[in-house]
Amino acid sequence: METSHDFLSIVLDERPLIDVRAPIEFQKGAFKHAVNLPIMNDEERHAVGIKYKEDGNAAATDLGYNLVSGEVKASRVTAWIQFIEENPTAMLYCFRGGSRSRISQEWLHDAGKDIIRLEGGYKAFRQYLLSELMPRAQIAKPIILGGCTGSGKTLILKDLKNAIDLEAIAHHRGSSFGHHIDEQPTQIDFENNLAYALIQHKSKGYKHVILEDEGKNVGKRFLPTDLVAHYKTGDYVIVEIPLEERVQITLQEYVIESQAHHIERFGEGQGLKLWYDYILASMHRLEKRFGGDRLKIVVELFKEAYDTQVISGTYICHEPWITMFLRDYYDPMYNFQMSKVQHHVVFKGNRDDVHSYLEALD
């Protein structure tokens, strides 16, 4: 039966993958373009594991074959075949590339379908991806895009071919109000997806990699410490735009677009209320750093804006509380963080000028 450890081509070709591990394993972390079609479900895996501890490998293997037989086996093979027919380049893996993936491969062969099995399985591929997150694996020179909150840095990144959007990979907008309706990926998935992005970036031969100025954390996910330190050695490009323009960018992203996503998912009434609750909860989480008195003011501004929007349908009423948060919370925090470390700033300008500067970098 054919095996492969050509992990690079899996990433570059974005190969579909069949993960035959149990669902509980898959949920902790998997790979891009992988689907969980387990050879054993969680209960079956648990029973086999107990049998292995009590009576050894042979008894555990026999139990596995008994549990996954007849119609159960047929349904799982059928699911694998259907996926392979829809994704002819698919490959197969289990945790270590051992018995589960080998047996799955054999059952498929017996059913007239051949598939390549990942040599070393999940563990080997995961180690390969982790190695690509090490500073020594980085070739492109980092360029860090900085600027006050609401400067539209993410909008600039999305339009650059040699940029990597860490917030998109982490599924978080980076600020205290930045979580999306859907949960962030697991830490393992975040690391795997980031490695995919870095490998694909490297394969294109870019001399620079452009990233937004992030801390170690993006929401609840964190970048490897050594990789953060490597990025901090890069040159800085700072986008500078007036507060009024930043208010409009923030209004568009965190109010108009965020409300639309909530309404699309939950319906107008419930969606708008869930958005209101999430913004209010985010505000209260900042009470210690923002200050209780100022928080009371901004909360009142927010509640008034929400009530006005519900009655009139206008969004402009949200500008006062957004302005206060940007001016009195985010700007001082950003200025303090920039003052702590001496950054090598190579360019400053408005959004168009910064975009042109970065676009000229290969």
TrEMBL record:
SMART domains: RHOD (SM00450)
EC number annotated for this UniProt entry: 2.9.1.-
UniProt keywords, alphabetically: Selenium, Transferase
Pfam families hit by this protein: AAA_SelU, Rhodanese
Molecular functions per Gene Ontology: tRNA 2-selenouridine synthase activity
GO biological process, one term: tRNA wobble uridine modification
Domain Rhodanese: 11-134
InterPro entries, alphabetized: AAA_SelU, Rhodanese-like_dom, Rhodanese-like_dom_sf, SelU
PANTHER family, alphabetized: TRNA 2-SELENOURIDINE SYNTHASE
Protein name: tRNA 2-selenouridine synthase
Classification of source organism: Bacteria, Bacillati, Bacillota, Clostridia, Lachnospirales
